[in-house]
Amino acid sequence: MEKRFLLLGILLLLLGYPFLRPIVEDVWQKQPDATAFPKYKEIRVEQDQIYQGDLLLVNKNDPIHSEAVLSDVIHLSSHKYLVEGYRLQDNSIQLSENAAEAFNEMVHAASIDNVKHFMIKSGYRSLGKPGKLAEEKGHAHDALPDCFHEHHLGTALDVTSTQMKIDQSPEGKWLQENAWKYGFILRYPKEKVTITGVPYNPMHYRFVGLPHSAIMQERQLSLEEYVNTLREAKEVSGTINGGDYKIYYYPVATSIMIQVPTNGKYVLSGDNQGGVIVTEFL
Ligand SMILES: [Zn+2]
């Protein structure tokens, strides 16, 4: 009897094998379990994050908040590797290290095009400290009240040529054509005076980072117009330097939960108005 049951068992196993096999394969195909390694995670964004980051819009309607000052502001003269290939007007000039690295890369690229006479005239200015800039001749936007001024951010700088006036120099021309490739924008262009509310200033550049500077260049947008565009669009995507990116805008009332990549690269910045912008590099 027992032998018959054993043979029957073996027969059933053999018959069942083809039916069992796909099930086994299916289980293997589901590995690894996608839910065990989520691509996105949720983070809480608080209201003070509206006032921090590289995309802050600082103008007469949106004054700078104390949270805005970047923690990586450094004295450029004590970081020799960051000031190769250009001059500083004096040793007191400070700037965000991240922006200074991008500026250094930009100046190096310009030198390959034989444009080599850049000088940083001014950079970061601490909040509440009387500005030396106000005494400088020809710096039209210093007529604005101190709290509206972009130089408090650490990502704004005035660039001149050591040879001639910047708007007549090869340096000025090169920057107007190429600064966007390195994350910089000419903050107060001639054709945007009515939007920025600030007279044309060929010296004043602002670091906003890629892909933002590239989008602004391509669509000919001022920072005011760009932030408005993001706020209305909520989501923008494209390609930069061979990689895809996505930009999301989230309004923030008091606090909000948002999704960000678990392991991928992303940058979060406030707009200094009422929301945050997440830039995801895919
Ligand atoms: Zn300036």
From TrEMBL:
<dbReference type="InterPro" id="IPR009045">
    <property type="entry name" value="Zn_M74/Hedgehog-like"/>
</dbReference>
<dbReference type="InterPro" id="IPR052179">
    <property type="entry name" value="DD-CPase-like"/>
</dbReference>
<keyword id="KW-0121">Carboxypeptidase</keyword>
<feature type="domain" description="D-alanyl-D-alanine carboxypeptidase-like core">
    <location>
        <begin position="93"/>
        <end position="209"/>
    </location>
</feature>
<keyword id="KW-0378">Hydrolase</keyword>
<dbReference type="Pfam" id="PF02557">
    <property type="entry name" value="VanY"/>
</dbReference>
<protein>
    <submittedName>
        <fullName>D-Ala-D-Ala carboxypeptidase VanY</fullName>
    </submittedName>
</protein>
<dbReference type="GO" id="GO:0004180">
    <property type="term" value="F:carboxypeptidase activity"/>
</dbReference>
<keyword id="KW-0645">Protease</keyword>
<dbReference type="InterPro" id="IPR003709">
    <property type="entry name" value="VanY-like_core_dom"/>
</dbReference>
<dbReference type="InterPro" id="IPR058193">
    <property type="entry name" value="VanY/YodJ_core_dom"/>
</dbReference>
